[in-house]
Structures are given as structure tokens and as C-alpha cells.
Design brief:
The protein is mainly alpha-helical. It is built from 6 helices and 2 strands; from the N terminus they run αααβααβα.
Length: about 180
């Protein structure tokens, strides 16, 4: 395909995406905004962070936030890939601008991991990773399916389990870094 043809086709596809987004936004305004499912999403976005602010180990705040931010980044990225690949989709988005489910990627997953990292720090991280994976995959996903917030298309819950374990183990490893070099000129 010549460059001009590529750019023309790319522009056409972008126009289709923009039109679909506009249609999705209108549907969100009419059917989602202020529905009970939307309020559940808002609560799932806010409440975990409020609980974390109240119960975090204050001396470990920045270490935990680094791990939480890592989970936000990785889970959102993997969610974008899964949605784009047609493996699942979400209903009742809190914000219609993001393809991922904000309460899950930006709140529930990172806060759960931060709590597990700080609770019983002597427990082996792999055991905590299994707990994190089990809660996320075998409790969280089925609850979201039951609430009709999430629909797996080409995805089984047990596929998520090892991914969640690896995400937790990576975040736990990151939280244990003892030294960061100073930034010098």
C-alpha cells in the first residue's frame, strides 16, 4: 500500500472510531450516567482509596503508592489490550473517555495490592500473590459479571489468575526496593 493510500485509509478508520465514540458517549449520557451501576462504579473508585488513606502504614506511603501506581499502569495497559482484542468489554463506565473500567484498574486492584503488601510483611510474597490473584480473578470478576458491569467474550476467569499473581509479585518486588539514587546535575 502506498503512503498516500495508507494515510487515507488511516483517516477513514479514525473517523469511524470518532463516530463510534460519539455514539457511545450519547448512550452513556442517556443510559449510564447516574444509574445504580454507575453509582456502584463511583463507590468502587472512591471507597478503596478512602480506606487506604485511613489504614495505610503512613511511614510506607510513598513505597506503597509506587507499587499502586505500577498496578494502575500495568492493569490499565492490559485492560486496553484485552478490550481492543475483543476478549471482554465493560458496561456502565464511570467515565466514558477511558476504555478500561476505572474502578477496577485505578482503585480496586492497586488498593488491594497495597493492603496485602503492608499486612503481615513476613508472609511469603508468592502466597500473597496467590491470595491477590484468587480474590481478583475468582471473586472480583464473577461479581462484576453478576452486576453486569463486565462481560467476558473470549476470556475465562482462570486466565486472569496467573496474570494477577504476576502483577502482585511485580508490585511487591517494586515495594521492596531499598534505595533510589539521588537525582544529580
Amino acid at each position: 500500500m502506498h503512503e498516500d493510500a495508507y494515510f487515507k485509509k488511516d483517516a477513514q478508520l479514525y473517523d469511524k472510531i470518532a463516530a463510534i465514540h460519539d455514539e457511545k458517549y450519547e448512550l452513556w449520557i442517556e443510559q449510564v450516567l447516574f444509574s445504580w451501576q454507575w453509582w456502584v462504579g463511583v463507590l468502587l473508585t472512591v471507597v478503596p482509596w478512602v480506606l487506604w488513606l485511613c489504614f495505610r502504614k503512613k511511614e510506607s506511603t510513598y513505597r506503597l503508592l509506587l507499587s499502586g501506581l505500577f498496578i494502575v499502569f500495568i492493569s490499565s495497559w492490559l485492560d486496553f489490550i484485552g478490550i481492543s482484542a475483543g476478549k471482554w468489554h465493560y458496561h456502565y463506565d464511570v467515565l466514558p473517555l477511558l476504555p478500561s473500567f476505572t474502578p477496577w484498574d485505578f482503585s480496586v486492584l492497586p488498593v488491594l495490592a497495597m493492603f496485602l503488601i503492608q499486612i503481615k510483611p513476613k508472609v511469603h510474597p508468592f502466597l500473597k500473590g496467590i491470595v491477590y490473584g484468587a480474590i481478583s480473578a475468582f471473586a472480583g470478576e464473577p461479581i462484576f459479571i453478576w452486576l453486569e458491569l463486565y462481560t467476558p467474550e473470549n476470556w475465562k476467569t482462570y486466565y486472569s489468575f496467573p496474570i494477577f499473581v504476576l502483577i502482585y509479585l511485580s508490585a511487591h518486588w517494586l515495594s521492596g526496593r531499598k534505595h533510589f539514587a539521588e537525582i544529580k546535575e
